[in-house]
Design a protein that fits this description.
This is Chloride transporter, ClC family. The chain is mainly α. It is 70% helix and 1% strand. It has a two-stranded parallel sheet with strand order 1-2.
């Protein structure tokens, strides 16, 4: 009798898993399509801004006013952005408004068009979470809300970067520092691979930069990698700390969001013009590419860090991950000669480990290093990210991230 009951329960559980997996594939297709449209338009706007930078940058404060107005007039809870995703995961909120998707997309396009320094993955993750979470009421089982959030996060990340393994691991470990949410591994994997394949099939290009390393992993190299990991960890933590403190300081100093974004927007328009004529605007793809060639200035990483902190703290939209990639790569190119290592190699290590430190994740940065720079380099990424993770991982760019100690 007990065996029959157990078999029935297992059958019911497997039936749930099958239905969720089918829904996850659908989520992957939808998110992959939207990620492709979002990314393709963003690339067009970036190219247009680069051609007409001096004509567009003066309007950065006005674009900020429009962003604040849209969120104030139509956004509601959507103004929380990634914070809303974490609140729903913690059951502090119940739903993610569907209007978050067009608001986040359009405001990010405005942010990049007029030259502010920001990323794009924050929007992709919010898109994935919002669309995926809409499926959760259909499935009446415990933790369906959280499960579909994780599925959506993975789909959003994978559809944009086309790094499905890193996306899966990012989704499984980002909600709670110190815990890996393996209960949704299968549907999360299906959603991530489907979103990645869909966006690629529709023409969105993936960034890859294969690195061939012929350095023997000996005790001397291990010590170098460990020291680099600590340095990258400090910078990732610095970025997260400054972002959190600057947001709070600006809110306390300027109670009205319209005033805040206009004044900071004016400051940004001046700084972004004076400091390299848009070198640090948008995704700073040129700076990222030059980092792997060792063709950077000493303070490129710091200027990108400060300008991104100001952009996101003021209320412009985008994301934190892509700037962390660029900050880490630029810093790696600067550090490479001091460690007598190839610039491209150390830039790749910085690319992955600053991201890991800033988001308080471990497996995702290791695998994003493998998917972008070549899996034969996984041992190097593992060591550097390991040492980067020892730097006060409780500080993250996601202020709502929960922590499990011990």
């Amino acid at each position: 009798m007990r065996t029959d009951i157990k078999s029935f329960l297992d059958l019911k559980k497997n039936g749930h898993l099958l239905l969720i997996s089918i829904a996850a594939i659908l989520v992957g297709v939808l998110v992959g399509i939207i990620d492709m449209i979002f990314g393709a338009v963003l690339n067009v706007l970036t190219a247009f801004r680069q051609m007409h930078f001096l004509y567009l940058i003066p309007f950065l404060p006005l674009s900020g006013l429009l962003i604040v107005f849209l969120y104030d007039r139509f956004g509601g809870k959507s103004i929380k952005g990634m914070g809303l995703v974490f609140d729903v995961a913690d059951k502090k909120e119940v739903t993610i408004p569907k209007r978050l998707v067009p608001l986040a997309i359009f405001s990010t396009w405005l942010t990049h068009l007029f030259g502010a320094s920001a990323g794009r993955e924050g929007v992709a993750v919010q898109i994935g979470a919002a669309l995926s979470h809409a499926f959760s009421p259909i499935f009446k089982f415990e933790e369906s809300s959280r499960s579909f959030l994780i599925i959506g996060i993975a789909a959003g990340f994978a559809g944009l970067f086309q790094t499905p393994m890193a996306a899966i691991l990012f989704a499984l470990e980002v909600l709670v520092i110190g815990r890996l949410e393996l209960s949704t591994l299968l549907p999360t994997s299906l959603a991530a691979y489907t979103a990645s394949y869909t966006s690629h099939l529709l023409g969105l290009k993936k960034f890859t930069h294969l690195i061939r390393v012929t350095i023997e992993l000996n005790p001397v190299l291990f010590l170098k990698l460990a020291f680099l990991g600590v340095l990258f960890g400090l910078v990732g933590t610095l970025f997260a700390y400054l972002l959190r403190r600057t947001k709070l300081a600006l809110i306390l100093r300027f109670r009205r969001p319209y005033q805040r974004i206009v004044l900071v927007g004016l400051l940004l328009s001046v700084l972004l013009t004076v400091l390299g004529m848009g070198r640090y605007s948008g995704l700073s793809t040129g700076l990222l590419i030059n980092s792997f060639k060792g063709n950077v200035f000493v303070f490129d990483w710091l200027f990108k860090l400060i300008l991104t902190v100001l952009t996101l703290s003021a209320g412009y939209q985008g994301g934190e991950v892509m700037p962390m990639f660029t900050i880490g790569a630029a810093l790696g190119a600067v550090l490479a000669p001091f460690f007598n290592l190839p610039a491209a190699f150390v830039a790749a290590l910085g690319y992955a480990s600053v991201f890991g430190s800033g988001t308080s994740t471990f497996l995702a940065p290791v695998f994003i290093g493998g998917e972008i720079f070549g899996f034969e380099n996984i041992p190097y990424f593992f060591i550097v990210v390991c040492f980067a993770s020892i730097v006060k991982k409780q500080i993250s760019v996601y202020s709502s991230q929960k922590v499990i100690n011990g």
